[in-house]
Amino acid sequence: MMEAVAERSLLKVANLGKTFDVSAPFLQRVATGAGRKIVKAVDGVSFAIERGTTFSIVGESGCGKSTVTRLVAGLERPTAGSVEFLKPEGGQIRLQMVFQDPIGSLNPRWRIGRSIAEPMGTGLSRQEQKKRIEELLLTVGLGPEDKNKYPHEFSGGQRQRISIARALAADAELLLLDEPTSALDVSVQAQVLNLLKDLQQRLGLTYLFISHNLSVVRFLTDRIGVMYLGRLVEEGPGQTIFDAPQHPYTRLLLETIPDIENPNRGRAPLAGDLPSPLDPPSGCAFHPRCPLAMEICAKTRPEMKPVANGANVACHAVN
């Protein structure tokens, strides 16, 4: 199934890896006899995103999902694997990032119109640029007059709309959405998610969506990758993952979603803390916390394998 998706893909990530050297300074290591410390933030991650769809990566904080986004954006260089953009007619893929904190990505000294105009380049006249800015503001649910305001004059949700408008100003085909709603109130989250869904349907945009909020992911996603300690442990169609999760970690994550119809249902808590990436467990990294752990889990790392309904899972307990 992953091969079939890859044939229609805008983005293909293969065996992506990223390590960071977090060792102490050389002289300090010599004095203390300490060795080098290497963190595998991303370890052998592979997925493909079909044009006009959303691929979401979910997992606990520190699992490496934001690092994957930075690798795709070119903000970090991979130490292994590849990121390939596929465009039938040739040429380059235009991508933009929408960050978690919109106020941090907008210059407080610039009026909003200037921030939106920045990625447009120099190909438009001043009048054409002004018209384009006003069109983009209307597209994201703001008014043309807002181009003359500063970032501090807007709410958090409005600033996120401005960030989306700026991404569209560059005619981006692929948006990298790194926790774009986590800093917003629940009601504002819904407004931004509805906007993203509407823009995708109207403009044919492709999204790589990073989140730890499974309720948010469920609303927007087509395919999901569940990440744990730098690796994907399950990947597949969103509906399949939510209806019939295979990996024990995915099942435990889904237990955290509130159920209005059954708020007092019995739920198994996720045991223990996320292991340190400096000293990951042997074999399957999830085995110290897994309710289905077997002897082989501590010795051999499971590889991703296809299961029912187009999903893929890396787990010794799944046949």
How far do the termini sit from each other? 17 Å
Dominant shape:
globular
Query: Unreliable runs, pLDDT <50, ≥5 residues?
Result: none
CATH architecture type of the domain at 1-24 and 36-90 and 210-319: 3-Layer(aba) Sandwich
**Helix and strand succession?**
HEHEEHEEHHHEHEHEEHHEE
Number of strands: 11
Describe the oligomeric state of these chains in a short phrase.
single chain
* CATH topology grouping of the domain at 1-24 and 36-90 and 210-319: Rossmann fold
Largest sheet: 8 strands, mixed
- Spatially, the strands of the biggest sheet line up as 5-6-7-3-8-9-11-10
Give the fraction of residues assigned to helices.
25-40%
Q: CATH class of the domain at 1-24 and 36-90 and 210-319, anyone?
A: Alpha Beta
Q: Going by CATH, what is the homologous superfamily of the domain at 1-24 and 36-90 and 210-319?
A: P-loop containing nucleotide triphosphate hydrolases
What's the gyration radius in Å? 21 Å
User: Roughly what is the average pLDDT, rounded to an integer?
Assistant: 88
Distinct helical segment count = 10
Strand content: 15-25%
Give the gist of this structure.
This protein has 319 residues and is α/β, with parallel strands linked by helices. It contains ten helices and eleven strands.
Please characterize this protein's 3D structure:
The chain has helices at 2-7, 26-32, 65-73, 112-117, 126-139, 156-169, 186-203, 214-220, 238-243, 248-254, and strands at residues 9-21, 38-50, 54-58, 80-85, 95-98, 174-178, 206-211, 223-228, 231-237, 305-306, 312-313. It has 319 residues and is of the alpha/beta class. It has a domain at 1-24 and 36-90 and 210-319: 3-Layer(aba) Sandwich (Rossmann fold), CATH 3.40.50.300. α5 packs across α6 and α6 (156-169) packs parallel to α7 (186-203).
